TrEMBL record:
It comes from the Bacteria. The keyword Membrane applies. GO terms for molecular function: acyltransferase activity, transferring groups other than amino-acyl groups. The keyword Membrane applies. The chain crosses the membrane at residues 14-33, 53-71, 92-110, 147-167, 179-199, 219-240, 247-269, 289-305, 317-337, 343-363. Pfam families: Acyl_transf_3. It comes from Sphingomonas abaci. Keywords: Membrane, Transmembrane, Transmembrane helix. This is Acyltransferase 3 domain-containing protein.
């Protein structure tokens, strides 16, 4: 694959910021939805899942697409695939290890306290039980919980570096780009990935649940690794980007139609839920998943591909925000449980506390030199645009 420099796509930066903001709001909503989560509010209602399904199908796939796109720029600035892999390992594996050891532990503690009657305090849990590599109250400890995304992204990055090195040795540097542009340089940019995801969700894994356990999580890998590679290829394919600019309205129609069907099933407008409906549900999920990604990239290219004074700070801050946000949500939700507050007050406090806590974590952490690498920042701040995750 030829690794050439290319202009920065500010729209992809804004998509990344927006996707992480949605993820944080989504996890706050998980406290109130009737889906399984670490700590649940007394106000949990089934209807909350319906608006959540508007983003559920594509929110994580979009992050992998954007991360793959950013990897192209990072690889272009690296001296070699090995240098690229080492740099990404420092920016991903180090925060992952720090997160598993320090940031994540309050989450299983809060879950055990609220669901399993765990009596010990947090310090006892962290020093005695968390690192026992055993199961307590149904939880496998230690855990990476929401940081599975970082682990998967790091794995895909190492795989990419290895493939790029092999392709260079095999004199096939441009093969991937030529094939990408040939197949995805027209309406295929919408239809081919949609067909892949429809096959996955309707037939191959039939809407199987992800485990985020790395091994035995086939549904996640066959969904997210292609999304990551698509983003990498898109960054080097003007033809595919032009196709997205042309066909994004079709993606938007697909996404809305897919969501309409999925929401109709959840609201019992469509049914009964049987094998035939399950296939249609998987196809609708795939239409929403890929249609939304095409539409969002097209809209970002059309309307958001411009810089702003706040962009550099926001693109740097989203990774530290991501690292700590769920721990803040879970602890605040646990603290609010006995208060008996109305739904609106509880939700507002969770949003305000999460934003304030994430901001304090980022602004405080970036001023401490030894802490910077542990929260995903460069050891030495540089007066340049920050790299994407």
């Amino acid at each position: 694959m030829t690794v050439a420099k290319f202009p920065r796509h500010y729209g992809m930066d804004w998509l990344r910021v927006g996707a992480f903001a949605l993820l944080i709001l989504y996890h706050i909503a998980m406290v109130f939805a009737d889906w399984n989560y670490h700590v649940k509010s007394a106000h949990a209602e089934s209807w909350i899942t319906v608006p959540m399904l508007l983003v559920n199908a594509w929110r994580l796939s979009l992050l992998f697409v954007v991360s793959g796109y950013a990897s192209r720029a990072l690889l272009a600035r690296s001296r070699s695939p090995g240098d690229f892999a080492w740099g990404r390992s420092k920016r991903l594996a180090l925060p992952l290890a720090f997160g598993i050891a320090v940031i994540v532990p309050p989450q299983p503690w809060a879950e055990l306290v609220s669901k399993a009657g765990y009596q010990a305090g947090y310090w006892t849990f962290w020093t005695r039980d968390y690192f026992r590599f055993s199961t307590i109250g149904g939880l496998d400890l230690p855990s990476w919980n929401h940081l599975w995304f970082v682990a998967y992204l790091w794995l895909y990055t190492l795989m990419l570096a290895l493939v790029v090195a092999c392709l260079r040795l095999g004199r096939l540097q441009d093969g991937f780009d030529r094939l990408f542009g040939r197949w995805l340089g027209g309406i295929g940019v919408v239809l081919l990935p949609f067909a892949w995801y429809a096959f996955i969700h309707a037939r191959w894994f039939a809407m199987a649940a992800e485990t985020h356990a790395l091994f035995g999580d086939g549904i996640a890998h066959i969904s997210y690794l292609p999304a990551f590679l698509f983003g990498f290829g898109l960054a080097g394919s003007p033809a595919a980007m032009a196709a997205i600019r042309r066909w994004w309205p079709l993606g938007a129609v697909m996404a809305l139609a897919g969501y309409g069907f999925v929401a109709g099933v959840e609201l019992r407008w469509i049914g009964p839920f049987g094998p035939a409906l399950y296939v249609r549900y998987g196809i609708a999920h795939a239409a929403e998943q890929w249609g939304a990604i095409v539409a969002l990239i097209g809209l970002a290219t059309r309307f958001l591909n411009r810089d702003h004074p706040a962009r550099a700070t926001l693109t740097e801050a989203v990774f530290p925000f991501y690292l700590v946000h769920q721990t803040i949500i879970v602890l605040v939700a646990l603290w609010l449980m006995p208060a008996g507050l109305p739904f609106a007050a509880e939700f507002a406090i969770l949003v305000a506390a999460t934003v304030a806590g994430c901001a304090a974590f980022y602004y405080g952490g970036r001023r401490i030199r030894w802490l910077r690498p542990l929260i995903g920042l460069r050891l030495h701040p540089r007066p340049v645009r920050p790299a994407l995750l």
